[in-house]
Amino acid sequence: MGDPKKTTIVLFSGDYDKAMAAYIIANGAAAYDHEVTIFHTFWGLNALRQETHIPLKKGFMEKMFGKMMPRGADKMGLSKMNFAGFGPKMIKEVIKKHNAMTLPQLIEMAQEQDVKLVACTMTMDLLGLQREELLDNIEYAGVAAYLADAQDGNVNLFI
Amino acid sequence: MGDPKKTTIVLFSGDYDKAMAAYIIANGAAAYDHEVTIFHTFWGLNALRQETHIPLKKGFMEKMFGKMMPRGADKMGLSKMNFAGFGPKMIKEVIKKHNAMTLPQLIEMAQEQDVKLVACTMTMDLLGLQREELLDNIEYAGVAAYLADAQDGNVNLFI
Amino acid sequence: MGDPKKTTIVLFSGDYDKAMAAYIIANGAAAYDHEVTIFHTFWGLNALRQETHIPLKKGFMEKMFGKMMPRGADKMGLSKMNFAGFGPKMIKEVIKKHNAMTLPQLIEMAQEQDVKLVACTMTMDLLGLQREELLDNIEYAGVAAYLADAQDGNVNLFI
Hints:
Peroxiredoxin family protein (chains A, B, C); DsrEFH-like (chains A, B, C); Hypothetical Protein Ychn, Chain: A; alpha/beta; DsrE2-like (chains A, B, C)
């Protein structure tokens, strides 16, 4: 059999549709017994935010970012045809109609399949996000850890 | 010589300029005897739409998506400086001036070079796109087929 | 030890945050002794523009593109929450606060670490950019040279 194949995804984007694509590929690769890592950086970190407001001590800029960015996967907008939130409603409608999975469901499935979900600590600092605000059972690392995974990766994507 | 090299591209974007980049890399790789696959998903499917309106039975949401999305490569907008359609005109102008290839020409060339053009069936369902609306001589597959190609790929990109 | 690992990045995007991600990964990979290439194409070329206006003979379209596109890394906008230039100010503020590196500093560091910075000659022609306008000590090449690097790459990304 040899070593398992590896898939790594940098999820930079904070768009619902792009994050869906990332998690669909990740779940597919995990089903094929790949070792899969999603490294969430910049706006991609929003997919890992908890929906409920967690009161934390923050500076002014950190509060601003915290308020302006979507709180969790379900609140994210589309990369195209967002139409002030109407586009995401349409997408969620057709997902339901076709019995496909929503982004929060895809994330849950990824966790069940042991996809390694990593939050980029450097961009957490920049955007003022703290561990208490993010999902449980994720890992925290920097670009060095990402590269250590990716340099042996069979499929490496930046989304 | 060994096995041929492989290039796979996920074309997620529905932007004219990003699709141009995807097809330029694909055509270049095909010229270097790579086996090349472009897997069109989400808005990238629009590059495969036929220009003419094909009357088909569709539900309300599917009709909405069908109307709002560009019908074919030539109708797509730019990722930057779109300016309500003025940007694409500028790009097409300079393409002509420099004897470069337009996106429809790049797609035609890819088909002549046997680049495998695949439409993602799952997102076709979501966006309500049917086979009758898409170009001839393309393939239909899901994420499993993409991963089977990509895991042996030398160059794998998400665009 | 064997051959050094290789990282290649196509920088298509002209966004400050995406270019930051590209250069952070590139600098990280260079620190791990990878051979690193960033291939700047389309709007990504703007990261290589000099800040000062260089008077050059140009046609009408080329002048238009030249005026509309940001002149250098420091002038680039954000992919999200740009808010007419307020977003970049916020990002630069938090970068300073956390002693992180700005995009111009990351580019300088990449040059010091011998990251190969390449400008795509085909899209330079399309956008009317000339060598006199770009940074010193960069290389000029087309898609063939990119593919020659990428087909042996361990980590290949499109940003």
